[in-house]
Every structure is written in structure tokens, then in C-alpha cells.
Amino acid sequence: MRLTLTPHTRTPCAAVREITVEVSRRGRALSLSFDVFGDMNAIAIPEWVGSARADELWRHTCFEAFLRAAPAGRSSRRKSGPSGLVVEDDGSNQSERLPEESQLGPDFRRDEREEGYVEINLSPSNQWAVYVFDGYRSGMRAAAAVERRALERSQDEGRFGLSTIFDLNGLDALPSAPWRLGLSAVIELKDGSKSYWALAHAPGQPDFHHPDAFAAILPPDPS
Q1: Is residue 90 part of a domain?
Q2: How many independent structural domains does the chain possess?
Q3: How many helices (H) does the chain have, and how many strands (E)?
Q4: Which of 32, 113, 166, 188 could cysteine-pair with 136, CB 3.0–4.6 Å?
Q5: d(CA 75, CA 191)
Q6: What is the CATH number of the domain that holds 33?
């Protein structure tokens, strides 16, 4: 399915017109494809290096995904979306910039700060990282069991793309059941400024780790 990120209200970015993400899941294999549309001459894109794990990739242009086990016992508030996506429905439209076929309704009422989750960092440099957290910004550790397939990077006038597949089969933190999903991006411009994009933003400063940012539910591929 194709989802659209929105900029945080405190970090607008005239150089970027849109950021979209194609995301799919087969078992515990997560496929991610990010596309940035805008003025490529203004965006600072890290230079290509050999594939390697690295920390603090978010300090520069970087794409991210956040995953946690979806809470059970809430089927009454779910409805089916495109390509098997299940979205939260609270009766209001809280994602007006998303394509109509991918409307999300984030659940802002449940406190999930004590639940573990996984963070994926994907840099245009070909570097990457995966971390496991025991709770909100706590108990962070590298996820050594994760593997990443070859990274595909493309660019043309007005567009930059990055796509790959992560094999998360070795992560006990992620069950085979549905996952709650957050998607985000840090865009650094050549003047040093940064903008922060996500499916949904929590109140206050940009915070991709906040439970409110886990705005979609992604079930396993039924096939």
C-alpha cells in the first residue's frame, strides 16, 4: 500500500512537495520504498558508501520505520483498508493528506509508553540500523539478528527514491500477528536545516518514538 507522510507543523520545508512510502509485509519480511518529491538541488543527500550498520543516521537525511505488536481485543474499532492494511477508525478524519484509499485514524487514547518496539533507520548512504526498545526511549539495543537486502537508490529530476527489504524473522519483539506501524523521515537541506515527516505527529516537538506516531496496523500477508 502507498502511504503519505506529512511534515511537522514546526518544521515546514518548501523544498519538499511530498514524501510517499510503499510498504508491504510477507511474514516478518518488511518491504519499504520511500520517494521524496521536490527540489533535489536543495536536499542534502548523504554520499553512497559500502553497506554497513551505523548509529545516529537520523542526524542527516534518513528514512525510518517503527514497529510494535498491535494490541489485541480492539476489533470493534478496526476496518479493512487497501492491500490488507487495517486502520483504526474513531469516526473522524485525522489524516486528510493521505490518499483516500489509505486513510488512517490514529488512536490517541491508549498509553503504550511501557510497550517494546523496533526502530529501523535507512540512510541514502547505504548505511542502516535496527534497534529494539523495551519501552518509550528506554532499554535501547542493537538488533543483531536482523538482515537487510540490497538497497536500491534512484534519482531523477524532482524525485529521490530508496527501497529495500528487511528480514525481521530473528526478532522476538515482533510476533507473527499484526504490527502497529510508524513511518517517518528526516530531511536535511544543504543550508543545514531539517524537517521531520511522519504518518502522524504527537503534540509538541517532533517525536517519532511517541505512541501516537504508530498510526497504522499492518497484518501479515494472508498468503
Answers
A1: yes
A2: 1
A3: 0, 16
A4: 113
A5: 47
A6: 2.60.40
Is the pTM value of this prediction over 0.70? Answer: yes
Answer whether residue 223 is part of any domain.
no
- AA identity, residue 179: W
| Sign of the alpha-carbon dihedral angle for 64, 67, 172, 22 | negative
Query: What is 30-96 written as a DSSP string?
Result: EEEEEEEEE-TTTB--PPP---EE-S-GGGSSEEEEEEEEPPSS-GGGEEE-GGG-EEE--SS---T
What cell was used for 130?
535496527
Q: Contact, 120 vs 65, CB < 8 A?
A: yes
Residue 195, strand partner residues:
187
Amino acid at 41: N
Query: Residue 156 falls within a domain, yes or no?
Result: yes
